[in-house]
Write a structure and sequence with these properties.
The structure is a homotetramer. In chain A, about 30% of the residues lie in helices and about 20% in strands. By secondary structure, chain A is α/β, with parallel strands linked by helices. The first copy, chain A, has 2 domains: about 130 residues, NAD(P)-binding Rossmann-like Domain (Rossmann fold, 3-Layer(aba) Sandwich), CATH 3.40.50.720; about 160 residues, Dihydrodipicolinate Reductase, domain 2 (2-Layer Sandwich), CATH 3.30.360. In chain A, a hairpin with a 4-residue loop joins strand 13 and strand 14. Chain A is globular.
Chain lengths: ~350, ~350, ~350, ~350
């Protein structure tokens, strides 16, 4: 089943930013070999036509989307496809006996009706929604061991949930007080062309979008609700930052007690003990997005305010790595029972 | 008292971003003539040495800081100085009979102890704190008429207060629920050199700073408290955006009733009726910072959320114009009884 | 023929960057009134739908492209259209008795065959190519007086020609030695969407394009040839800079004698005497693009090198102003016999 | 001499961009262990205070500059110091028996007088200038084998020389016709603070600097002269691009014959055969800086022009990697007789 003892991987959506980042990261994975790069729109082209930075690194033509061919060539498929596409494709891959890590969002919500409300597409069949393990590695990592199908978390939910869950589990913040002000670099919008991502419209500009309407809201609430043991509803705003990579989630919540910044640091360090990709910063240190750029880290900092009784939690990730391709590989490692860090040992690129 | 029938203006701090923007804007003011550009650090230099874009536009050497000379050459002085400097300089200018619009922040807080707590400098004498009219034009414009001394609002407070005041005055938002997530371009940090503003540290980066510690917090609370009629305390976070100009204040508050976005639009349009520099956007339209760049506008949009009972208010300004030099000129116009728009008829520069 | 004594202007292509900049600049023109904003693609929409920064400034629906209607509503038409469109439209406008300033490039080359070689479209009829006055204001300004039809120069040619012509006319540089290394901000690519202008592809990137193939080459050569009195052929490279506005043309040429930087400064200052929008910088001062941003200036600096016998000439403009809308208005002023600076008194926006 | 069989490395200048990039890259080098990170200005601090992105990656306090201590702790020292500092420090390190890769520029010129002319510092003693091997790996790689002291090439010279040498050696371009128009991201200016690198002065700006005066000129000419066998003098302009990383060198030269683009591609591919870090692009493909970002590649493309008889050669590198830290590691690999690619297997980070 392997090439030279390696797991064979196919990447669907290899011409998007998530797909091309999977290629970058998997180049250094000691136990995985990319055997097929797949694109419905550019099948037959050399991948370096669309991504000249890969010249001489991966000499391979793009394959079309053909489940039988994938089953023949690969052991695991990463589906970095637009939402709606995976809903149809993934069941075929699973039926063909392939392992799947889906980056699309189509299998993150357990409730199909909720999916249809926020995504405006027909939901996948319930059996697949049930089968899909939500791969937030530092929280649900144990669930990933040995399974065949992981639904990789969204970029905003990853930064947000890692920043909120320890405090919610500890009962330190009021469930009805959570406000999430999130900011993302432009790669989060994908590689499709539109006026919204035209350089001259983004540069020297800062804008909010999809206030209270982003499809990542139910994903965040589903997991917070599970942790809290009661329905949690959040206020969630997304903004577009004139930069390529990076998400910051600035989160506000009322505290249930007089917790200090040191309390939060201690709580989170205990929660994330043994988890190499969450770095809880020292008291008084707030992480910036560039400090995790190009890497799989999620860095978290705190500011408590006795005047208002609120805590401000800041969580940053590289949306293309920890928010997509990096966590997908981390999930593969967990599925396979490998060390969590394989292929992910990238120091942040600074500056 | 005037040159060719014009009011003579001196600008202290002409080598900072606020000062140089005053020069740009005053070039087109029909009733003002710049008669002295002043810099303590670069006195004697031609202004175009530090600001080559002014070559051939204002052929003038920088003067030193000399109140007697200012009284001789000017009728009004704009003090665009670092905080702490104006505290000492402005009383001398007022004693010399000059009109003053102070952009420094030294005279915004009515309570000297509060000033010393947040600014870490000795406060000006109480008589000057009392004399200073807080020049938030669209709210307190009437107070400016005929006075000699205006304290120009801070950049963050301008965007924030214009976005909150109508709702607070109407009793539509809960006073203890206000959270302000603010973002600013780098000009807000001034022209001083430091690693914090090094291009390579800012570019492709997004960072939070001074969480709950920014000196604009008491300025915001002082005014909200006055409007609300009771003490208002806010949670306030500032972030640095990799761009030159622009502030967005994203504000969250619990609503006291079931107000819709249309309700908010109507309320704010009524409040700001006749005020040319606040543009309340249509329902569903959220302004972006570039849409006011280079101009004196403050644009406001709303998103209400029945799920959480909160309203999200987004307010944007150009921090160098409406947040500094533009509002200072608007204040001068109000002081002099001129039309509010003189010298400020700039269409936003887009893109 | 005028509204309140003003010339009535229509703008075709009002949803492009050139068109919207014409709107910005004409707002402050004392003798021009915009009476129609025209877009083939968005006719019927309010202009603020596509350009929210114009909210409350120009309340007007976009008209369709209808020459008869233009003749009814306007005295002059600015055609800021893609190349190929003006070729067909402008003759109809001229026949209808309208004045035209064409920003498209379709009428810049006098030789139709040359046009078809570089532009890959059928050329306009020869009579119109002959009629069109090439509006490089500081060189051919006299030709504009009283005419009805101006072909507005391209952005790269404007920066380049203003930087080369005085030296060529003086016989100071070798005609066969000219190399032009030009760089432009992204607005130069227009507002159309494509992967080439996707933010994430441009940001943190610097690329060359169309080396020796840019359609502005024959425009530059045609004018240099006229000035030189013999055929001039140039090497011309264009690069895309991750910024919105600005062109720098860095030009290299072998000198015919031992000219110093002071010689060049003196020569150019004499050539451009009385021309307010060319600023020849002092010896040793090289202009940067931001120093003309938002304004109609072209700034020029020199570095001579005794080691190689070459001069390096640096010329900068704002491509949307002096390279498009600003020079178009300057041309209108010259056509009408008005002062050259009307509506163009913008100080550069810095920073 | 090694820790766990690894070569022990010290990095002087660990708080600059070159030093911190050495840390990033050496993390993945299988045969090198960083045993000391050294900073004269920040000795005693944890490195993560100045570079929070290294939190948890390298837990080490900065050492002071002490040659005896270095000799005790390390086998090789990378000196990423300002010019003038290495001139004094490196001889002490060599005397102490350490291997040295110097990134400062102090030992690149063989002629001390030339050094003093361009660098304005006293030159190192001639014996060290002679001893230093100029480490342009793809050209002089054989000279590095077994030596103790490498002078690492400058960033501009690396991009430029790799782009010119094969053509000069083949006699295809005229020696007196070479013009180099170079552009660099801001990290090239170092991490020191000054108005020149203030974000608001760089962003939305493009500027030329040090025209014909850059200290990399004699370095380029020294090597071209060696290859050409006669004195070569170049015209060289540097520009600052609003981005962090990347250099493009756009080079112009008159051709000695009718060479085509295919000829150049073939020539260069033959010259660089077996050299993994130069990628000669296909005919018609011009590389952009982002396509090598974060990696050790130098990518080269060509445009020949029959109209002018000139060739335009475009060469791009990441200035911090191939132009500094990456090539320094490549040189270490060559010194030690290791495989050239150790620790350098980074796929470019895109986008």
């Amino acid at each position: 089943m392997t090439v030279e003892g390696k797991l064979r991987a196919a990447i669907v959506g290899s011409t998007g930013y998530g797909g091309v980042e999977l290629i970058r990261l998997l180049q250094s994975h000691p136990k995985v070999e990319i055997t097929s790069v797949i694109s419905s729109s550019s099948a037959g082209d050399a991948i370096e036509e669309g991504f000249p930075h890969l010249t001489g690194i991966i000499d391979r033509k793009l394959d079309g989307v053909d489940p039988a061919q994938m089953a023949d060539r690969a052991d695991v498929v990463f589906t970095a496809t637009p939402s709606g596409v995976s809903a149809k494709l993934v069941p075929q891959l699973l039926e063909a006996g392939l392992k799947v890590v889906d980056l699309s969002g189509d299998f993150r919500l357990k409730d199909g009706a909720e999916y249809e409300h926020w995504y405006k597409h027909p939901a996948p069949a319930d059996e697949y929604l049930e089968q899909a393990v939500y791969g937030l590695c530092e929280v649900f990592g144990e669930r990933a061991a040995g399974v065949d199908f992981i639904s990789n978390p969204g970029c905003y939910p990853t930064a947000t949930l890692l920043g909120l869950i320890p405090a919610i589990q500890a009962g330190w913040i009021k469930h009805d007080s959570i406000i999430i002000d999130a900011k993302s670099g432009v790669t989060g919008a994908g590689r499709g062309t539109s006026l919204m991502v035209h350089y001259a419209e983004i540069n020297e500009n800062f804008k909010a979008y999809k206030i209270n309407k982003h499809q990542h809201i139910p994903e965040i609430e589903q997991t917070l609700t599970e942790i809290a043991g009661e329905k949690v509803t959040v206020t969630f705003t997304t903004h577009l930052v004139p930069m390529n990579r990076g998400i910051m989630s600035t989160m506000y919540a009322g505290m249930t007690g007089n917790h200090t910044e040191q309390d939060f640091v201690d709580l989170y360090r205990e929660y994330y003990a043994g988890r190499p990709y969450v770095r809880v910063r020292d008291v008084g240190v707030i992480p910036a997005t560039k400090e995790v750029s190009g890497s799989n880290y999620c860095d978290i900092g705190f500011a408590t305010d006795a005047r208002t009784g609120r805590v401000t939690i800041v969580s940053v990730i590289d949306n293309v790595v920890k928010g997509a391709a990096g966590q997908a590989i981390q999930n593969l490692n967990l599925m396979m029972g490998w060390e969590e860090t394989l292929g992910l040992g990238y120091t942040p690129v600074y500056p």
